[in-house]
Design brief:
heterodimer, A: 79 residues, alpha+beta, Ubiquitin-like (UB roll), two-stranded antiparallel sheet, B: 142 residues, Aldehyde Oxidoreductase, domain 3, 3-stranded antiparallel sheet
Amino acid sequence: MKVLYFAQAALAAGCREEDWPVGRELSLEDFWSEAIRRHPAMEGLAAQCRVASGMNYVAGGQCLDPQAEAAVIPPVSGG
Amino acid sequence: MKIEVTLSRDPLRLEPVRDPGTGAVARFDGLVRGTENGKAISGLNYEAYDSMAEKIIRQILESLGRTHPFTLARVHHRLGFVPVGEAAILIDVHSRHRAGAFAVLVTFMDRLKQDVPIWKRGAGVPPANLSDGGRDARAPLS
């Protein structure tokens, strides 16, 4: 699964993109556990960031499609 | 109902549009101020999850258009470095009547600031390891 990081999340991860070997759907909890395992600095961001899968925000109780692009979305500030 | 979305690294410009079905055009120009969080800046750096940002912008406008039909809505957002005084975003909404155009414009801006994956940071106060001048969000950090 391709995972994208933006803004503060990219700083915490130290990269903007990486591939995770995932063969099943991930819950949000699974996703954050793996993100924090890979990048401990992400722990402080988890509460304020949203996660997208296939360019849709993932709500609590939904899962991430391992075939779709995932992204960590910090609070937005466009305009 | 036509929707036009552009994310561009070049200065923004909205060309005039003539449509006999349009009775009102509401327009918003979002400009970069000279201060950010009380500190003087030379500009703002914008980055985006481009493909998702465009998708969400369209979803928001399509949703608003069901309540307040419009003939055309254009959203142009600039990415990369935007100097003070220049436009970070230009929006116009063309509608038969002013009430709908105003409603779509105001509500759209609120939704953009909640849901559209675009981020800014002030130039002159960059994060220590992300002084990249606002290049493409998918580019490597170093």
